[in-house]
What does this fold into?
Amino acid sequence: MNKYLSKPNPNLLKPIPRKIGRQNIGWDTKNIPFSGIDIWNCYEFSFLEKSGLPFAGILGIEYPSDTEFLIESKSLKLYLNSFNMAVFDNYNEVKKIIENDLKSALNSANIKLIITIYEDFNQKFNLSKKFKCIDESKPKNPFQYEVNPDLLQAEQAEKKEHFLMSNLLKSNCPITGQPDWGTVYIYYLADKKQITEESLLQYIVSYRNHQEFHEVCCERILFHLINKIQPKKIVVLCKYNRRGGIDINPLRVYPKEKEFVKNLPTELKKILYLREFRQ
It folds into this structure.
């Protein structure tokens, strides 16, 4: 029978250097041209209060994409499990411990934590109609299941905004091989070219056998779209379903800007912290 640890163990956290995935994509890791954040929701967060009563809540974690490392999700789950039988005065004490441990693991001071208790939880799901779902597009060519940027086709465009989304994103964990299901939102301000919806759907589906971390998949999609259409601005938001009680939601914005969240299109701001149907 498995026994829970009686105190938190930060050594369970496994940092992964971001530059490895970025080098594989083709980014210049010394001059990253985009901004972004990674948003995690941990639904199985618990510890023991001094009375012996278990605390249960949702732990939200947010940190910028310019941290040297990202955290491997299974290691985060194991780390949070080490709190399950540990005793604390209150959740603010726990919050401080987690914040310090993540700062150390990520080598960054920019960590934002939010603990939501049952009474404050609002079961609010995304119902945005601004984004056009491309899943009903009818590509002429057969679908492929290995990532191929050549699937993307461009056509002449007016300088206008595009709001597109798909529920058919699926990639696979590079550690366990388990499937990662997600919804992808793509906003871009076209310059001279736009992506055809049929080819974008084929491209999204081509991730089906791909093994890569959520954050890297998001950056790969961004990379291929920038190279194909050279937009004035583009935002990619990948909202993955929860696995092991945790969902991960990377957001990437090009070109790089300091107040990128504040300057997001209103429709993107509305959905950033809302849940998808798989979450």
Observations:
- The two ends are 30 Å apart (CA to CA).
- Residues 132-271 form a domain with the GTP Cyclohydrolase I, domain 2 fold (CATH 3.30.1130.10).
